[in-house]
Structure formats: structure tokens, C-alpha cells
Write a structure and sequence with these properties.
Length: about 525
């Protein structure tokens, strides 16, 4: 075994060891909330896996959780982020390139919306409800340049690097020998055990891994290896990725405990209530079955044959003079079951952030109510939103930019550094900005009422306030004049006012004539 193959094998063993203690808990999370997702154990396509579910509330709430988070983070067809000048640029420099960056943003989101990102994101959020998700972003064809694939957690293994961030990602999949050339080209190494006509229709375990090459710290470099489980000497395919956004793998976590590489999601945290609710419903059904069919006692008098009793309408059962069959009343009572069920369901709804302000009632929600609900959801979810943005959306946009830049569709050599930054524009991000807008407008209103509009205009810098409001409201750069255009407009205004005075015309009317 060569050194590189040995290193990859050691990485695989380490990743397998790290995941071992999570698998049993993950299996229960998926079994009770997402029964149709792949299993960590034996998995048969189309097999029913809901035979242990007695209450469907966790299944429904988990699906609603994913839909709710998607509508708050990246609604389908929306522009959930924008590119803007970084802090190293002056305000005038930033405004000078804003229109160009708006064009880049439009190109990026045109490619994203043409891809399958919306469908894939829903699967990603379902996996994030458990804690960890895997997203593979590959280069597509000429019409759809972006191809997104959600890799289920049972097929995924990860490990942390020296910076305590994920730097190794394994994927396991069963493939036929003919699939290898389709996936990785003709210049591949075919393992001996996979050659021959007799193996053409067999499926073999194939793994691919992407890991960070820390020998070159200055440049982000990733090694990509493909190998078969039946061959411990050679790689099927090898490749190297360089540059920010070159890594096709994105592995977001909902929340993370210190020292761990896998995340813990709201379903993971609420698993105790979910299992207790399911068990309680199971006991209620068993009690209901006894209530319907009843329990009976019989005297063994030699007349009643217990093997031939059949409880059906109209049946006549021969009994002896001693009484034969008598109903037996159960000793327990389930009168308190509704209190227990309601409490457990409320805990699960709270864990999955359902109805943070109560269910909508009456007329359809107004824009103010929708904004308030988003603001409340942003406040309740808290830190995981920041982690999702940093571990999912930022790397995803960097990856899309890398692919489009490679194809020559955009010219954006640097992302999220001193020159260019990525700004979240999702409804949840805007909800927090609405608080800034409300605070500013309240300040303006109080100052105007206390000291008058003249004092207010004497203190407020319009050239600072207007760009800030444009940023809060996410206005395109083409809507605002740059420094040169503002100076030209001011000069035209002065000339129009002077000409009006000389001709005896009201200066205000002359200024209105300059308005577009």
C-alpha cells in the first residue's frame, strides 16, 4: 500500500470511529421524524419504515420546520444575498462599483434559480433538523451550470482539521464498473476485481474523499481521491482543487458541541419528547383495543371450549350453569392521557420553532404581521442562523462564483475579503435590519417633534443617511447617484436658481423643472 493510499485509509478509519456513537441516535431521529429517508443499517428501496410510528405529529412538524426555515432563509426564486464592497473601500469607491456588483449578483442568482437549489435546500434543512447535512455542488452543462446534490447522512463521513473545522469529507456509494467512466472519465484505473464481463452488472462499494492539503497554507488546496473497497492499493481517480470555492463539498451543522465535528439539531435535542409521545400513543392504542374487544373471564367447567370462542355479532356461546363468560374490567385508567399528550406535543412544537407567535387566525396576515413573525423567528432561533449562513450559504455562493468565473460568465476574482463581501438578504436577515430602520425613524420623529424640522435637518447628514437607508432597504446601486452625478445635479440646481432670479421666476418652480 503506497503512502497516499495508506493516509486515506487512516482518515477513513478515523472518520468511522468519530461517527460510531452518533449512528444509533440518528437512526431513531430519522425513524420517528423522517421515516422515508435512507437508513444507517440495511436499506431496501421502497421499504416501509413507519411501522413503529403511532403519532405523526413529529413527522409533520419536521416537514413544516424545513419549509419554514426555507421561506425565512432562501425563498424559491428569491435573491437571498448580494455582493457589496468590503470595508477596505471608501463609500464613494463602494458606490462606484455597486452597479457592476449588482450585475454580478443578478448573474449568480440567475444560475442558482435555474438549478435545483430550491429542492435540494429543502432536503438539506430536513437533515439539519437532525444536526448535519451534506451538499455536493458540481459543475453542470452549458444551460444549467450548477448541479446540486444532497448526500444523506448515512453515506457521509467527516473529520475535523487542525483548525477544528471540517477538512475531510467521505462519501460511500455502490456503483457498477461501467458507472466509473461516466462519473470520472475514461482515464481511470479499473480495479482488477471489477473487471470482466462477469462483474459488469455487480455493484461495488466505491468511496470518494476530499481533504485539505495543509502543506500549502497560503493557497486553499484540496485533494480529491476515488477508491474501491475491494482494492487497497490504487486510486480509481485523483484530482486537485485550488482556490476559494474550488471544494465541491459543503457540510453545514445546526449547532455544534466543542470538540465534535457533527452537529446537533432540534430533532436531536427533542428526541426524548418524541419517543415519549410515540410510546404514550402506542399505549393508548393498546388500551383502546382492549376497550373495544374487552377482556373476559371464563369458568373452566368442561363445557366452554376456549379454542372455539369467536366474538362476532349474533354469535351464540354455550355455557354451563355456573355462568360461563363474564367481562373483566381493566384496572388502569387513561383519563390523564390528553394532558400528557398536549404537553409533549407543545414541547416538540417549541423545539421545532412552530407558531412562535401562535397560529394565524382570522383574516390573512398583513405585511407587518409577516415581518413581526420573521423577527420573532430570528430572535428565537438565534445562533444557529449565523452558523447556517457561514457554513451553508457563504460557501455555496463562493462555489457558484468559482464555477461561473471559471466559465467566464462573471469577472469576480475575490469574494468575501477586503474587496468584496457577501451580504445576506433573506427575510430573516431583513427582519433584524427592520429593527435598525424602526429605531432610526423613531429617533428622527422624536428629534423633529422636540426641536423642529429645522434643527433636525441641521444635525442630520443627508449624504450619510441616504446611502445607509439604501443599504438597509437593499436598494440596487443604479438607483443612487454617485459623487460626480450629485455634484453635477447640485451645479444644475444652482444655475437654474440663479437664472430664475434674473428672470423673476420662482426658484422653487425652476428646481422642479430639473426633476426627472
Amino acid at each position: 500500500m503506497n503512502e497516499e493510499r495508506k493516509d486515506v485509509q487512516e482518515r477513513w478509519k478515523r472518520a468511522e470511529k468519530r461517527v460510531a456513537h452518533f449512528i444509533e441516535t440518528w437512526e431513531e431521529c430519522y425513524e420517528f421524524t423522517q421515516p422515508n429517508r435512507p437508513s444507517f443499517y440495511e436499506n431496501v428501496e421502497g421499504e416501509r419504515r413507519d411501522h413503529r410510528i403511532y403519532d405523526s405529529a413529529p413527522v409533520t412538524l419536521t416537514a413544516e420546520f424545513a419549509n419554514r426555515m426555507q421561506s425565512g432563509l432562501a425563498p424559491q426564486g428569491s435573491r437571498f444575498a448580494s455582493f457589496a464592497g468590503g470595508s477596505a473601500l471608501t463609500s464613494d469607491e463602494e458606490r462606484s462599483i455597486r452597479e457592476e456588483l449588482d450585475n454580478v449578483t443578478n448573474t449568480v442568482f440567475e444560475a442558482i434559480n435555474e438549478s435545483n437549489f430550491a429542492d435540494t435546500l429543502n432536503e438539506i434543512l430536513l437533515d439539519l433538523s437532525v444536526g448535519t447535512a451534506g451538499l455536493l455542488v458540481n459543475e453542470g452543462g452549458p444551460i444549467k451550470p450548477i448541479v446540486n446534490t444532497c448526500v444523506p447522512l448515512p453515506y457521509l463521513r467527516v473529520d475535523n482539521g487542525p483548525d477544528e473545522k471540517i477538512d475531510t469529507v467521505f462519501r460511500s456509494q455502490k456503483r457498477k464498473p461501467r458507472d466509473l467512466e461516466v462519473l470520472w472519465g475514461e482515464n481511470i484505473y479499473m480495479p482488477e476485481d471489477m473487471r470482466g464481463e462477469e462483474n459488469a452488472q455487480k455493484e461495488f462499494m466505491v468511496r470518494d474523499v476530499v481533504y485539505r492539503d495543509w502543506s500549502d497554507v497560503g493557497t486553499e488546496t484540496w485533494k480529491y481521491k476515488v477508491f474501491a473497497e475491494c482494492d487497497d492499493e490504487n486510486f480509481i481517480h485523483e484530482e486537485e482543487f485550488k482556490g476559494r470555492g474550488s471544494n465541491p463539498w459543503i457540510v453545514p451543522r445546526w449547532s455544534q458541541s466543542s470538540g465534535e465535528c457533527y452537529g446537533r439539531g432540534p430533532v436531536f435535542n427533542a428526541l426524548g419528547d418524541i419517543k415519549a409521545l410515540n410510546l404514550t400513543m402506542q399505549l393508548i392504542f393498546e388500551n383502546a383495543e382492549m376497550s373495544i374487544t374487552g377482556m373476559w373471564e371464563a369458568v373452566d367447567d368442561g363445557v366452554l371450549n376456549m379454542d372455539t370462542i369467536n366474538f362476532v355479532p349474533g354469535a351464540v356461546l354455550p355455557v354451563g350453569h355456573s355462568g360461563g363468560l363474564r367481562p373483566l374490567k381493566p384496572g388502569g385508567s387513561f383519563d390523564v392521557n390528553m394532558l400528557i399528550l398536549n404537553e409533549m406535543r407543545a414541547n416538540i412544537r417549541k423545539a421545532l420553532f412552530a407558531d412562535t407567535l401562535g397560529p394565524p387566525e382570522g383574516t390573512p396576515m398583513s405585511a407587518t404581521e409577516v415581518a413581526q413573525r420573521m423577527a420573532e423567528l430570528s430572535r428565537v432561533v438565534g445562533a444557529p442562523l449565523s452558523r447556517i449562513w457561514n457554513e451553508l450559504f457563504t460557501p455555496y455562493l463562493e462555489r457558484v462564483v468559482f464555477i461561473l468565473n471559471k466559465r467566464g460568465l462573471i469577472d469576480l476574482p475575490k469574494v468575501n475579503d477586503q474587496i468584496i463581501s457577501i451580504i445576506p438578504e433573506s427575510p430573516l436577515a431583513r427582519a433584524s435590519r427592520n429593527e435598525d430602520i424602526t429605531q432610526f425613524t423613531n429617533f428622527m420623529s422624536v428629534i423633529g417633534q422636540m426641536f423642529g424640522q429645522a434643527a433636525l435637518m441641521g444635525w442630520i447628514k443627508e449624504d450619510k443617511v441616504i446611502p445607509q437607508l439604501a443599504e438597509w432597504y437593499s436598494m440596487p446601486g443604479s438607483f443612487l447617484r454617485n459623487q460626480a452625478e450629485r455634484e453635477e445635479f447640485a451645479q444644475q440646481g444652482m444655475q437654474a436658481a440663479q437664472g430664475a432670479q434674473e428672470m423673476g421666476i420662482d426658484p422653487a418652480s425652476a428646481m422642479k423643472s430639473l426633476m426627472p
